[in-house]
UniProtKB/TrEMBL annotation, chain A:
Keywords: 2Fe-2S, Iron, Iron-sulfur, Metal-binding, Oxidoreductase. SUPFAM superfamilies: 2Fe-2S ferredoxin-like, CO dehydrogenase ISP C-domain like. This is (2Fe-2S)-binding protein. Residues 3-79 form the 2Fe-2S ferredoxin-type domain.
TrEMBL record, chain B:
Residues 1-177 form the FAD-binding PCMH-type domain. The keyword Secreted does not apply. This is Xanthine dehydrogenase family protein subunit M. It comes from the Bacteria. Keywords: FAD, Flavoprotein, Oxidoreductase. Pfam families: CO_deh_flav_C, FAD_binding_5.
Length: 177, 271
């Protein structure tokens, strides 16, 4: 059996006849070719597949495409108009070097967008707790947290709850810049 | 991982869901947020022939005061429960426990009714509702019945709910300003509890200490008899049959239950 779904993805109407068992992550990647959304653990743990469903972060490996019918999905592709005009969150990830291999990055960014929507000026602790559903196996959490604080308009060294003496310094290019 | 294929229905009302359950109850599974059911379907530990999707039924999503109780629609998501002003004032334990479920993405999808109906003894909310002495409301075409939470959980992943019944509401007493605490011990941030202890108003619910969530009755009776927190908490593992797995031995879980109960009782007492 197939079911017709109509899902607004990144502001554009999409539609397909899908098997009910099709996961939203696979709808985005395989039906629409939106490959920014990565599938990592496939068990609701790692958060690499995080997208926004009606503006809220969800793990698209654990939502059926049919459950997103008549709803709105935003992926990493839908955040920025182009690479020269990045959305504030990915821009902050670039500026603070909040990534190493990059596999977790789209999920981290989408989780951070949702976090900042709900809590526009989080403390460092709130950022760490707000990203507990996203794993970075390069263990680049330090700069990821800094990036989210920066995206909220705060100085990562001075945000409430930040302990600059306790943690490693911000990323340096070594250029002295 | 891909689930076994299934048929899919998305009724537009609770009555529509009940009609489908009456026709297909044994072969069907109800899916709300899907955060308990879909993972086990992906692992092919469950293969329902029909999924009845109730995730869009807004009539099942509410939190309201009703007499001496708070009534929570079974389809209310954890993120709504954790931020509910009504629950913050009337049953802060429930809001506090919901805040510890999974992670933000999970809480945006998972529902309180789904968590209770799934009946995983390692889940947080079943033990919280047990500590609160709540009630679940089950509906079928045959009628509506209320089941005390003490009679709802019958084993691992099994409940008193009949195949044609839908869990529609959870009711908990208004505990207002009574002391409460939830102690959840995990190895990593969004893990299941190795052991959890929910305390409210002198009642103690245990997570992952047996086939179902359990009340620490020996501890409760000792407290009622005037025992100190330390003495009462030392009885918290009495009558339990904790599981043994990679996360811990039975004896380790018994130790955790005693320690976490002491901590939770101390916090609930304002300590």
């Amino acid at each position: 059996m197939t079911v017709k779904v109509e899902i607004t993805v990144n502001g554009e109407s999409t539609s397909a006849d899908v098997e009910p068992r099709l996961l939203l992550a696979h709808y985005l990647r395989d039906q629409l070719g939106l490959k920014d959304t990565n599938v990592g653990c496939d068990t609701t743990s790692c958060g690499a597949c995080t997208v926004l469903l009606d503006g809220e972060s969800i793990k698209s490996c654990t939502v059926l495409a049919v459950q997103a019918d008549q709803q709105s999905v935003t992926t990493m592709e839908g955040l920025s108009t182009d690479s020269d005009n990045l959305h504030p969150v990915p821009a902050a990830f670039r500026a603070e070097h909040g990534l190493q291999c990059g596999f977790c990055t789209p999920g981290m960014v989408m989780a951070a967008v949702s976090l900042l929507e709900e809590n526009p000026k989080p403390t460092e602790k709130q950022v760490r707790e707000g990203l507990e559903g996203n794993l970075c196996r390069c263990t680049g959490y330090h700069n990821i947290v800094r990036a989210v604080l920066a995206a909220s308009g705060q100085d990562p060294d001075k945000a409430e709850g930040s302990e600059p003496d306790m943690v490693a310094p911000g990323f340096s290019t070594g250029s002295g810049a | 991982m891909i689930p076994v294929g299934f048929a899919y229905e998305r009724p537009s009302s609770v009555d529509g869901a009940l009609a489908l359950l009456a026709e297909h109850g044994e072969e069907a599974s109800v899916m709300a947020g899907g955060h308990s059911l879909l993972p086990v379907m992906k692992l092919r530990l469950a293969a329902p022939e029909l999924i009845i999707d109730i995730s869009k039924l807004s009539e099942l999503s509410y939190v309201k005061v009703d007499g001496d109780e708070v009534a929570i629609g079974a389809g209310t998501r954890h993120s709504t429960v954790e931020r509910s002003d009504v629950l913050a004032a009337e049953s802060p334990l429930l809001a506090g426990v919901a805040r510890t479920v999974g992670d933000p993405q999970v809480r945006h999808r998972g529902t309180i009714g789904g968590s209770l109906a799934h009946a995983d003894p390692a889940s947080d909310l079943p033990a919280a509702v047990l500590a609160l002495g709540g009630t679940v409301v089950l509906r079928s075409p045959r009628g509506t019945r209320s089941v005390p939470i003490t009679e709802f959980f019958t084993g691992v992943f099994s409940t008193a709910k009949e195949p044609d019944e839908l869990l529609v509401e959870i009711r908990v007493p208004r505990t207002g300003g009574a002391g409460w605490a939830y102690e959840k011990f995990t190895r990593r941030a969004n893990d299941w509890a190795i052991v959890g202890v929910a305390v409210v108003d002198g009642r103690v619910g245990l997570v992952n200490m047996g086939q179902t969530p359990l009340r620490a009755t020996a501890t409760e009776e000792a407290l009622a008899g005037g025992a100190s927190i330390a003495d009462a908490a030392a009885l918290a593992d009495q009558g339990t049959e904790p599981p043994e797995d990679l996360a811990g031995t039975k004896e380790y879980r018994r130790h955790l239950a005693r320690v976490l109960t002491r901590r939770a009782l101390t916090t609930a007492a304002g300590g």
